[in-house]
Write a structure and sequence with these properties.
24% strand; 36% helix; globular; alpha/beta
Length: 195
């Protein structure tokens, strides 16, 4: 995993430096780091590890809270400094085609974890070690982690990077994603209130 390209990216939230990471420069779907201009990488850095969700991030699907989490994280990082890591791990790393198949299974009554398992995948096949590799490349030694996911917390704690604190990133549930959020809380152990 190495840097392949970087450029300044003006966005609705503010200006970021975007860096593309992959094993080689022929990869059309590299992982991305977006660094706020207000960031001092030598200090404790606000970090969001966000896995790609085409349906939520791009099309604002109400089946999940991903797009709203991305928006909230980008706003927070622009205002407070930090880095957003955008990992290309669509559908808990099963890809968009299988994710759509999982949606159909969810419409038949399975939750998101059960649907992935029925399709022959782990409930969550994502690899957050990629995020650690990118943070190491950026020279980041200490982070505040914007997450509700205990798995991401464990990956940071088990690395050489110091976790100073976890910053909750809870999105108010809607009727279309309440069951999805309950699965996140009850099956995956996410830190969610859901009141």
């Amino acid at each position: 995993m190495k840097r392949q390209a970087e450029a300044i990216l003006p966005t609705d939230w503010g200006e970021f430096e975007m860096i593309a990471y992959s094993d080689d420069n022929s990869n059309w779907m590299p992982h991305l780091a977006l660094i706020s201009k207000k960031t001092d990488l030598s200090k404790t850095v606000n970090i969001r590890i966000h896995s790609e969700c085409i349906t939520g991030d791009l099309f604002h699907s109400k089946r999940c809270d991903c797009g709203k989490q991305l928006d909230a994280a980008m706003k927070y990082i622009h205002e407070n400094g930090g880095v957003l890591l955008y990992l290309r791990q669509e559908g808990r790393n099963i890809g968009i085609i299988n994710k759509l198949k999982a949606y159909n299974l969810q419409d038949q009554g399975l939750n998101t974890a059960e649907a992935n398992i029925k399709l022959g995948f782990p409930a969550d096949a994502r690899d957050f070690k990629i995020a650690i590799d990118i943070l190491n490349d950026l020279g980041i030694e200490s982070v505040n982690l914007l997450t509700n996911n205990p798995e991401k917390v464990h990956f940071i704690e088990d690395s050489t990077i110091t976790l100073e604190k976890r910053i909750p990133l809870e999105i108010h549930p809607e009727k279309e994603n309440l069951e999805y959020l309950k699965t996140k809380k009850d099956y995956f152990g996410h830190f969610l209130d859901l009141k």
